[in-house]
Design goal:
alpha/beta; ten-stranded mixed beta sheet; Rossmann fold; 9 helices; globular; 2 domains
Length: 270
């Protein structure tokens, strides 16, 4: 993982996400791109000075953070401050493409657990708009290294080895205890898809099979995370998968999913 994007709004949540990213960067010798986005006022007349002031203030804050966290960075890693202009979500996604980012790590912007991840925040916009893996780190997260990791999949399985590569790299780098949470959407329990098992080759893991109706999937996952002591939950985003249905449910259903552990979202274009 050579390039990691960490968006910041200078909040405590964003600082927590940065520290999570630093732990990952130190394992891979990564460059962390610490980015802040601002919507600039039309640069005419007096507004030019306002834009320059906004730009300077934000950049100074970024540099301060870099200086504060530099003591936590290994010699092979680096934090680079970057100010983005324009629509925040679009700017983050575009910049991630430009630097060929391997991962985006971000906070939940004042959320309590994952509730706000599913309610139209920048985090949700980036998850929906980017094919790059995203780790969302809640402010409440206490464990900032993936020690007990879960991969949640449904009966659709995984459609290419590339999808799980970021997950496998993290598991191997941190020597994480790993469990596959297999959510069954049929009336009979089925085993994990054979191709998915093949893609997981090279890591040790146990498997937990569950059945529940679609309306209760959030509760089932949340209970599993708590009972198993999971500190990083991994889910796969693709059309018609159960995670996409979670993302587009009502606010009431979104409130139910209140896990306080970081969430890794992988993208499967199939």
């Amino acid at each position: 993982m050579k390039n990691i994007i960490v968006p910041t709004d200078f909040s405590d949540n964003a600082k927590n996400a940065l520290r999570y990213a630093i732990n990952i960067a130190n394992k891979f010798g990564s460059a962390i791109h610490l980015v802040n986005g601002t919507d600039m006022i039309a640069a005419t007349g007096i507004y030019t000075d306002v834009n320059n002031m906004i730009h300077e203030t934000a950049m100074n804050k970024l540099k301060e953070i870099v200086q504060e966290e530099s003591k936590s960075i290994d010699s092979l890693s680096i934090i680079v401050p970057k100010l983005l202009r324009g629509d925040v979500v679009g700017a983050i996604c575009d910049y991630a493409k430009d630097v060929k980012a391997d991962l985006i790590v971000m906070g939940t912007q004042g959320a309590s657990g994952f509730k706000e991840v599913f309610v139209g925040t920048v985090a949700q916009g980036v998850i929906n708009g980017s094919s790059i893996p995203v780790i969302v780190v809640p402010k409440e997260a206490k464990i900032l290294k993936p020690q007990n990791v879960a991969l949640a999949i449904d009966n659709s399985g995984v459609h290419s080895n590339k999808v799980l590569q970021p997950f496998k790299k993290l598991v191997k780098a941190f020597e994480s205890k790993t469990v596959v949470f297999h959510f069954n959407q049929q009336y009979e329990l089925s085993e994990v898809d054979a191709s998915t098992e093949a893609y997981l080759d090279g890591i040790e893991y146990s498997t937990h099979n569950y059945y529940s109706d679609e309306q209760k999937v959030e509760k089932v996952i949340d209970q599993f995370v708590e009972s198993e002591g999971v500190d990083l939950l991994t889910m796969i985003r693709r059309k018609r998968s159960f995670i996409d249905r979670i993302f587009h449910k009502s606010v009431t259903a979104k409130e139910v999913f209140h896990s306080k552990v970081p969430l890794l979202i992988l993208y499967d274009k199939a």
